[in-house]
Amino acid sequence: MSGHKNLRNVCIIAHVDHGKTTLVDHLLRQAGAFASHQKVDDRVMDSMDLERERGITIMAKNTAVIVGDTKINIVDTPGHADFGGEVERIMGMVDGAILLVDAAEGPLPQTRFVLRKALGQGKKVILVINKVDRPDARIDEVVNHAFDLFVDLGATEEQADFPIIYACARQGWCTAIREDVDAMMDGSKKGSLEPLFESILRVMPAPAVAEGPDFQMMVSNLSYSDYVGRLSIGRVMGGSVKKNQKLIRRGIDAAGNSKNENFTATNLYTYQGLKQVEVQELGAGDIGVVAGTEFAEIGDTIAGGDHVGPLPRIHVEKPTLGMIFSVNTSPLSGKEGEAIQSRKLRDRLLREVRQNVALRLEDTATTDQFRVLGRGELQFAILIEQMRREGFEFMIGKPTVLYQTSETGEKLEPMERAVLDLPEWSVGDVTSMFQTRKGLLTKYEGGSGNGSGRVRLEFDIPTRGLLGMRSKYLTATKGEGLFSTFVLEYGPHKGELAHRLNGALISDRTGDTVEYALLTLEERGVLFMGPGVPVYEGMIIGEHAKDNDLNVNPCKEKKLTNIRSAGAEFLVTLAGLRKMSLEQCIDWIDEDEWIEVTPESIRLRKKVMQQNLRSVKRSERIN
Fold first, then answer.
1. Domain 321-401 is classified in which CATH homologous superfamily?
2. DSSP of 180-236, one letter per residue?
3. pLDDT at position 37, please?
4. 32-46, 391-405, 484-498 — which one is most confidently predicted on average?
5. What number does CATH give the domain 4-203?
6. pLDDT-derived band of residue 126, with 50, 70 and 90 as boundaries?
7. CA pair distance 132, 415, nearest whole angstrom
């Protein structure tokens, strides 16, 4: 197989949980990417442990199938707005997109965010209506919504004339004929994913390549091999490269100045199914992997000669949130994981920033603290969880919004649009919850009139107001609500927001918690931990019922006497504890508090641990 005419590069874009990773599973199976005896897990593209646990795609991944004599490179992209940086850089690798939309939920905000990127770059799009077997599917209505979305995003006439495929990815069939859907669902007609393959070959253009024989490749992704080191993944924009050929990496240094590196292509790989297969030559238009340089970064250009210049670097929308990462300074440091020095913490964060173009790293005035800038709470939570699993101990502060100043000196803050799909009975609680966080209701659809009992609300809300909102929203809707957001723009500062009104219960000494002591503290507030837990002075053990902090002794034991009092022997147990997840902790803490993260525990503590050095009044401890 030779020449870029026999290539198609496509990505699959969709909202979280609309089935794109499941669709890729069946595309691989039906294209013969797996041997008949090979055992294959479901959602095979979600290779990270965190992706499997959370059921979401975090990292963009590559695979390839061969249909007839044409190779189709497929990129599975994340569906969550916090990982938009992944999506933005993948767009440069592909010539078209498969837009996957749930037949019941319709196009959701992340669909809009990614589709805008694809249409803006002139990509061809195939619309796939997935999950047509859902009992609450509204196929024709969703197709109309999708068309409205294309028009709203400024699609050209050619882009708006998109083919429509109706699919059930879970069962591995699709059809381009609307009338065949019922017959396929009841089994009277058998189907496969053949219509989708045919659409890709017919609609998607072959990759355009630069004129001339000189090799040029944009690095859009990075990987690592224990055998050959760092791997640069990207699309070959022009020319070809052979193994052991001399190449030039055109990158930039920390100050943004251009920096070149000469190296030899020690190994070349291309994708075949889920495997990277070693090849002797990479041709124009293909998505491939080049080994040989340990310094490649996303956005670099790999060139075949001195006269080949760099390609425009990948542009990613700016971060809206910042979070401080610090060396762990607590008395329990090093007991459960590796208590890393500031140099090692900085190196680990720097490695993450190099691989994820949506993140940035800044040094602070304190040598053992670093500020990571990103797009959302989930993005930070995933990074923290990955570092925990690598055995690191560290501390994190409260996420802060990145403000800007207008030309007139007005303070501006990032605004987001939250789109909520929720049961009608929870609308009142959810609306008041968003309005207390300065949310402005801009759209109300559905309700008892449409028979589904579900409502779609849209709020314009400051990014500050969304911190910690996801868990509260799921509680208010009893887990039935869908919650999606995307960044709009910077707008005028909305004033103070009510955060945590309650103070903290803080241990005043080091020791292990005792049930007797905790029982006496229950009436003071809500406890976060039970008996037998190591604590230290300054560690937060619960939430106070009042607005001030309270220093308490959770280690006090019952005085033993030789006199037995009547009724003293009956069993008394703690009424209830609030187990705090990482996301809940991020939402809960104030500016004067840290979250201590270790491989085994997540603890809350005050930045100043000695009780005689800090005030318990909220107005004095929070600026």
1. Elongation Factor G (Translational Gtpase), domain 3 (3.30.70.870)
2. GHHHHHTTSS---SHHHHHHHHHHSPPPP-BSSS--EEEEEEEEEETTTEEEEEEEE
3. 36
4. 391-405
5. 3.40.50.300
6. very high
7. 34
